[in-house]
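SEVERITY: medium
COMPONENT: batch folding queue
REPORTER: lab tech (J.R.)

DESCRIPTION
The queue accepted two submissions in a row. Attaching both inputs and their returned structure tokens so the on-call engineer can compare them side by side.

ATTACHMENT 1
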Amino acid sequence: MNLTELLEEAAGRWPHKAAFIEEGVPVSYSALVEKINALAAQFRALQLPTGCRVGLCHANGVGYVALTFALWKVNAVVVPVPTESTPEEIADMIAAMQLEAMLAPKPSAGSVAVGPEIFFTRLNPPSPPDNHGLNLAFIRFTSGTTSERKGVALSHETVRDRVASANRALGIGPDDTVMWCLPMAHHFLITIVLYLSRGATIVLARHVVAGPFLEAINRWRGTVLYAAPFHFALLAQDQSAAQMPGVRLAVSTTCALPQNVAEDFFKRFGRPLVQALGVIELGLVSLNLDDPRGRWNSVGRAAGDFRVRIVEPDASGCGEVAINGPGMFDAYVAPWLPRERVLRDGWFFTGDLGRLDAEGFLFLVSRKTAVINLAGRKIFPEEIEAVLNRHPAVRESRVFGRAHAHLGEVVEAEVVLDPPEATLDSVRAFCREHLASYKIPMRFTVVTALPRTPVTGKIRRDSAAAVGG
């Protein structure tokens, strides 16, 4: 199957219904399909081979969606490239994912324009990628369970199954209008694809400012909010008397929901925030529809057809969270590691530590790895540390997330300088050159040494460092 079939079926049922509203202008389902078909014709003329891996770097919008579906239409594999990525990060992605082409907003040598501010460039990886016979649709460039870079590969069939499972919990339909404010390069499959497959209307919010966003929710009669705690915190700060009477579901995802955000949002709008757990390898795993106020800090019960269990719980019931269900990823890409070699008796071990209460509500306690969640973006400390450690004045570093009331977490770093009298100004400048802006630590602390494990000598992430004078 091909995921374009889901959209085309929806367009056949609701051709004149708005699929998107972008900058106040509706784009119907039929118009969206026409745009996709026109782009697909251009890609066919470029003679993309079946299974070609194409990096997509494009701003949020109808154009991003049309390019994604057009690539799927010609059986290409989409690899999202965040627009805030630095040239160095993009080069790393191209090499690791063996990309054969790029779609980017700026031209380069040999590029071909395929639309306004979008250029196609053919690439030549040292060795042709092998999709191992899978009908791949999507590769998300991200770390895997070992916090090493391993793209997550998903087939068309896998995405279809996880979308179906997610909607058994969310219940999205043609009467829904979804307010969209997340980055599409980070969130697409169980959101955009799901909404379009069910005939919903998606309203694109370019800039989330409390007043205008709330006005847009009511102007377009929004029914579903699916956003990060950061966005809900902004809405809760609105000082007007406006409510959102049409909203039936407000889902908080991407990172843990702070208690003050949950309470402030309910106080302001009289509506609870429903916390969800999404895993790149799995999809929408759990959703707290049943008790969002009483268990505000729970990600809820298993969603759709998923099952959740706690492995080797301690005396308090806390252990590693394992998941089983439909739409689980097909493989890690670099190096290629099929799903069967990752799962344990059919279960995916998430690396999250958590517990289940007597009624099956899941509470997350911590991470086995130190992933940082910043306003909907996952950041891996090892990646930032690798950059910091290349600076001539940095002997070693440790990066971590610090809890933030609105952003979820912010990035902070501890560095050991050599020579000790070196300053941090050049370190910050080095980060600006080699890291996307959201990955640059907000605060640096100079320390004399980082804590290490006694046997292996690895940096410990659960101990305090010795602070320099």
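ATTACHMENT 2
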Amino acid sequence: MIIRGRVLLVGDDVDTDAIIPARYLVTTDPVELGRHCLEGLDPGFPGRIRPGDIIVAGKNFGCGSSREHAVLALKGAGIACVVAESFARIFFRNAVNLGFPVLECPELKGIREGDRIVVDLEKGEVTGDDGGSSWKASPLPPFILEILEAGGLIPWAKRRSHGA
């Protein structure tokens, strides 16, 4: 699975309250949640998001409350993927369960806001769209790639139980 997109940078310890503030948890509609994605970090952030953007984060992305709403907000906003130095474990699991691509890349340095990158989830590689820069990441295991390609854990399990 390969994802190409424009970089939106965020820092370390971006918690789920920053991804989607608690006042919006009255809905599970991804589009509605997406309208408020990352406004807890910066009220103007949702207006900067374009479909297909890739969030590049520092350490511990998705820490805090265990809420699937955070992943739904990212998906609803049109974010294609999050690449981070590290993820909070529960956020990583929620992302996989909901079919949202995430990649841990501890060596990711020197990327700027607006850069275009290519994320190869299978190889565990992030490259500059110009091909000049490359960072090694932790490749996702085949079973996680299968879950992502199915659109999440529930669709994946349904396919397996029906032999599809």
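NOTES FROM REPORTER
The chain has a mean pLDDT of 93.
No errors were logged for either attachment.
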